[in-house]
Amino acid sequence: MAVADQRQAHEKQAEREKQAVPKQARRRPKLTGRAAVLALVVCALVAALAYPMRQFIAQRSQIAQQRAAQQQAQQQVDELRRERARWEDPAYVEAQARQRLHYGFPGDVPFNSVLPTPTATASPSAQQQAAAQPWYQSLLGSLDSADSADRTTQPGR
């Protein structure tokens, strides 16, 4: 029996070696169950966070636009305050009344100078008027004058 037991032990070991070889030769799959679950969780997180991130970025740009508008409004307020301070000065009010409303103090003689109108001698000559016309109008004008001169010389037509 000892020989039979040895033989069985030897056969079992040979079977184990045969089974061990295919396990080592067998490759692991590239996508395991854990990797698939991990990829699914990552995709779910990306999908869940995409809309809030887009809203966050849009709100940041709106905040920047509102800050720029606020700064522009503050500059306008500062300019209006400076103008109000100028109008509180009596000398500035007096100068504006003289300039804009043509006011004067008692005893002053206010006057307005009026530019003279151009005279009739300054009218452009016929050559200057012809030069001001486009070339096609000059061409048509010369054709019309040649045609009218031809009709006056030939009374039969």
Automatic annotation (TrEMBL):
InterPro entries linked to this entry: FtsL/DivIC (IPR007060)
Annotated segments matching region Disordered: 1-28, 114-133
Protein name: Septum formation initiator family protein
Membrane-crossing segments per the record: 35-53
Biased composition (Basic and acidic residues): 7-20
The entry's keywords: Membrane, Transmembrane, Transmembrane helix
Amino acid composition bias (Low complexity), ranges on this chain: 116-133
